[in-house]
Amino acid sequence: MYATGATICNGHLALYVIPPLIAGVLMLRTGPVTAGRDLGGGLLILASMLKPNMAAPFFWIVALSLGRVRPALIVGGGYVLLTMAAARFQPAGVIAQPNRWLHFGADSSYYSPALPGVAPQEEQHLPTPVSINPLADRVSVVGGQHGPARA
């Protein structure tokens, strides 16, 4: 019981994500195949995509083991639509947002120390995501420059 209380108290979403996730998979795997069951199961799994790192493996169950496409399209299409709707509230648009994520990730890894108490990576000449990927300075997800900010 302590684990449940600690999970809720710390604000983790696992207890709110797992029930609709399991219910959605069970709804899709058992019973007759109807459009209503596909829609209901797909929407339950879509609701559990609130925590994608937990729900993504179950999405693969839906996409690969059911033998039908409709539930995967409901979940995948709904996730794309919700992501695009949420991106409208960001300062950058839907196209520029992935570039901002890449720049932030590259800048953060470039200027952070390799280990606590160790000099930054640029002084140690350790590989960074920018130096590991030879195309990182030329190519990003949607074009444009990628890599740490240059003065």
Question: Features of this protein?
Answer:
single chain, mainly alpha, 2 domains, 8 helices, 62% helix
Describe the structure.
The model is unreliable at 124-133 and 138-147 (pLDDT under 50). The chain folds into 2 domains: 2-87, no CATH class; 92-151, no CATH class. It has 151 residues and is mainly α. The protein has helices spanning 2-9, 14-29, 35-48, 52-65, 70-87, 96-111, 121-124, 129-132.
DSSP summary: helix tally:
8
Strand content of the residues, in percent?
under 5%
SS elements, strand count:
0
Q: What is the approximate shape?
A: globular
* Percentage of residues in helical conformation: 55-70%
Helix and strand content put the structural class at mainly alpha
* CA-CA gap between termini: 54 Å
Determine the oligomeric state from the structure.
single chain
How many separate domains make up the residues? 2
Q: What is the average per-residue confidence, as pLDDT, rounded to a whole number?
A: 75
* Regions with little confidence, pLDDT below 50 for 5+ residues: 124-133, 138-147
Q: What is the CA-based Rg, rounded?
A: 21 Å
